[in-house]
Amino acid sequence: MTFPSLPELGPRAMAAARVSEVRDLLAGTPAWLVGGAVRDVALGREVNDLDIAVAGNPEGPARGIAKALGGVAFELSGEFPAWRAKSRDDSWQIDIASLRAANLEKDLRLRDFTVGAVAVELESGEAADPLGGLGDLAAGVIRACGPASFSDDPLRLMRSARLVAQFGWEIEPDTLALARESAPQAGGPAGERTLAELLLLVGARDPIAGLRMMDRIGLFESVLPEIGRLHEVVQGPNHHLDVYGHTMEVVEGILRIESDLERFTGDRAAEVSEYLAMPLAEGATRGTALRLGALFHDCAKPQTRSEADGFISFRGHDRLGAEQIEERFRALRASRKLTGYLRDLARHHLILGFMVTQMPLDRRQVFAYLDRTDPVSIDVTLLTVADRMAARGTASIASQEMVADHLHLAMEMTGYGLDWVRNGPPGQFLGGSELAERLGIEPGPKLGEVMAELAAARFAGEISDANEAVDHARRFLNAG
C-alpha cells in the first residue's frame, strides 16, 4: 500500500483538525502523525482526530496549538506525558504524547498492533513502517507488535475484537493464540476503558463478528461473565438454540431491524431512524445502546432456569437480569443513564409478548404499556421484535401466526411510542393541589392514584376537560 504524502491528506481527511496548520505550528519540533489517524488515512477514511508523537515534552506543543487555533489544552494522564488540544465546540481534537522510547522505531515497536505502528513525519510526509503495518492494513490482518503486546496493556485484547467488528479484519494465528493465553488479564483495565471499547465494538459495522471474536479469545469470562455463562444453557420448545446462540440471533435481529426499518416500523421508519441516532450516554447513540441491551436481555437465564416434568422455565429472569446489569455496569463505571437504560430493557422485554393474545388492544392497554416502559418504550418494543424473530422452536408461541401478530402489534406500539416521545405523557387538566381541594382529600398516595387514573382516562379519550376530570375522579374514589 502506498501511503499518501502529507500534503494530500489535509483537504481530504482532516479539514477539522487542520493538518497543515498543525504542521506549521510544530515546525522545528520532531513530530509524527501516528496511530488511528494514520490507519484511517491509509484506508481512505475520514479522520476526525489527530494523534501526534513528539520528541520531548508534549505540554508546550499542545498549549501552542490550542492557543493558535482558539482551543483549550489539558493533560490527559499523570502516568505518561500526554496532552490534548481541542476546540471549544468539540469540532477537532489533537492528542500529543511523548515518544515512549529512545527513538521513533523503538516507540512504534511498543505499540499494540502493526496496523497502528506506522508513523508519518509531519514536516516531510515520510512514512516509517518498521513492522510492515501498511502491508497488514492492505491484507486486513491484526498482528501484535510483539510478545508483550497484551501484557503491556490488557485493554488491547478488547481492542483486537473491536477492530474485527470495525473493519472486518482477521487476527493472525500467532496473535490469536497470544490473545487466548492472555485473556485472563482482560479484566484488569479500568472499567471505563473497557466500557469504551465495548461500546465501540457494539456500535461498529459488524458487532456480531466482534462478539464472536471475544468469545473465541475467551474475553467474556473475564470482562462480561454474564454473557459467557449463556453457553449450553438449554431452552424449551419455544427456542431452537441455547441461550448464547439465541442472544447472538437477537443482536443480529436488531441489525436486521436497523437495515429495514420500513418493514418493521412502517411509515414511521424515518422517525425511528432519527430516534435511534439520538445520543444517549458515554458517546453512544440509542441504537448502539439497544444493541448492547440485546446482548444482555437474557443474562440471568442461567440462574433462573428450572425444569419440571419436561417443562423448562426461566421465571424471574427479567427482574434478576435487571439487577445483574446494575452490578456489571456499575463495575464498568457506566453512567446512571446508560445503566438505567439497559436495566429497563431487561426488566420490560417480556411485557409486549404477553399482550399479543389480547389484540386488538384498547387505548387504556396502550397507555399502560407506554407508562410502564417509559422512557424505553420504543427501544424495548424493537427489542421484542428481534427476540420474537429469534425464537424459532416448535411451540405455538413460535408459530408464524404468533410472530406475525407480534410484529404487527410492535409496529403499532412503536407509532404510539413516537407520539409519546414527541408529545409527552398525558397532561392533567388540574394541578394536584386544586384537584385535592375539589375532591376534598389530602395530598398523598391516594391523590397519586387518582392522578394516574386521570392520565389513563385522558389518553383513552374518556375525559376532555377539568369538570369531566373531577367527575371521573369522584367515581374512581367511590369505586374504591
Keywords:
Beta Polymerase, domain 2, 10% strand, single chain, 480 residues, 27 helices, Hydrophobic Seed Protein, globular
The strand count comes to: 13
- Proportion of residues in extended strands: 5-15%
Radius of gyration: 27 Å
Shape annotation: globular
Low-confidence stretches: 6-17
Count of DSSP-assigned helices: 27
Helix/strand structural class: alpha+beta
Distance between the termini: 78 Å
Topology record:
Layout: H1 6-13, H2 19-25, E1 31-33, H3 36-42, E2 49-54, H4 59-69, E3 72-77, E4 82-86, E5 93-98, H5 104-109, E6 119-121, E7 127-128, H6 133-139, E8 141-142, H7 149-152, H8 155-167, E9 170-171, H9 173-182, H10 191-202, H11 207-217, H12 219-223, H13 225-228, H14 243-259, H15 261-265, H16 269-276, E10 279-281, E11 284-285, H17 286-296, H18 301-304, E12 306-308, E13 311-313, H19 317-331, H20 336-348, H21 351-355, H22 363-373, H23 377-389, H24 400-423, H25 432-439, H26 445-459, H27 466-478
Parallel strand pairs: 2-5, 8-9
Antiparallel strand pairs: 1-2, 1-6, 3-4, 4-5, 6-7, 10-11, 12-13
Helix pairs in contact: 8-10, 8-11, 14-17, 14-23, 17-20, 17-23, 19-20, 23-24, 26-27
